[in-house]
């Protein structure tokens, strides 16, 4: 019982933070779904962005809990430096994965093209035209007029020049 009396403020703040966490997750989910509905975005792309936003909200809540419970600065710095070292090595090794996820979120909100669009990628080494079949978290699935399937990383879509073309359905030729 003395634990409850000693940490009443922290327990109340933790409870309020828990309610706030639920509220923020619901609001973020509804806002993203409303945005996706107005832009006619696919459900699985919407779910990926919601998952990323929930992860961000959870990280912020953990930071708030650390502040509420008054974790000692020296303990916090030791833990954060250890975690940062491990995560830094992992992210350095997997930098392209992180950049592809970030590019996927940017493509979701900027919405420059959609599934079914025919695009021309202006790459000096490997230029090509293809139809977008699917947009995933890491890459885009493309199909050329020859029937070739290409999996193209999201981060390269943001780095290369891209033209959106019109498709002539009767002969599967693409025109500018």
TrEMBL record:
Cellular component aspect of the GO annotation: membrane
Listed transmembrane segments: 12-32, 52-71, 77-110
Chain ranges of the Mechanosensitive ion channel MscS domain: 97-160
Source organism superkingdom: Bacteria
InterPro entries membership: LSM_dom_sf, MscS_archaea/bacteria_type, MscS_beta-dom_sf, MscS_channel_2nd
Compartments, record wording: Membrane
Family annotation (SUPFAM superfamilies): Sm-like ribonucleoproteins
Keywords per UniProt: Membrane, Transmembrane, Transmembrane helix
Gene Ontology molecular functions: mechanosensitive monoatomic ion channel activity
Protein name in UniProt: Mechanosensitive ion channel
Native species: Flavobacterium omnivorum
Taxonomic path: Bacteria, Pseudomonadati, Bacteroidota, Flavobacteriia, Flavobacteriales
């Amino acid at each position: 019982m003395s634990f409850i009396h000693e940490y009443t403020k922290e327990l109340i703040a933790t409870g309020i933070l828990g309610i706030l966490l639920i509220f923020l997750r619901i609001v973020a989910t509804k806002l993203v779904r409303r945005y996706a509905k107005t832009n006619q975005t696919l459900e699985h792309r919407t779910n990926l962005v919601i998952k990323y936003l929930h992860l961000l909200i959870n990280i912020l809540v953990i930071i708030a809990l650390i502040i509420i419970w008054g974790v000692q600065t020296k303990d916090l710095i030791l833990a954060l430096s250890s975690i940062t070292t491990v995560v830094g090595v992992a992210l350095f090794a997997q930098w392209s994965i992180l950049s592809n996820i970030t590019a996927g979120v940017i493509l979701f909100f900027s919405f420059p093209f959609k599934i079914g669009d025919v695009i021309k990628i202006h790459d000096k080494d490997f230029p090509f035209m293809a139809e977008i079949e699917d947009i995933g978290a890491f890459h885009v699935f493309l199909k050329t007029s020859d029937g070739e399937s290409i999996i193209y990383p999201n981060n390269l879509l943001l780095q290369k020049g891209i033209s959106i073309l019109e498709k002539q359905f009767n002969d599967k030729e693409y025109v500018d």
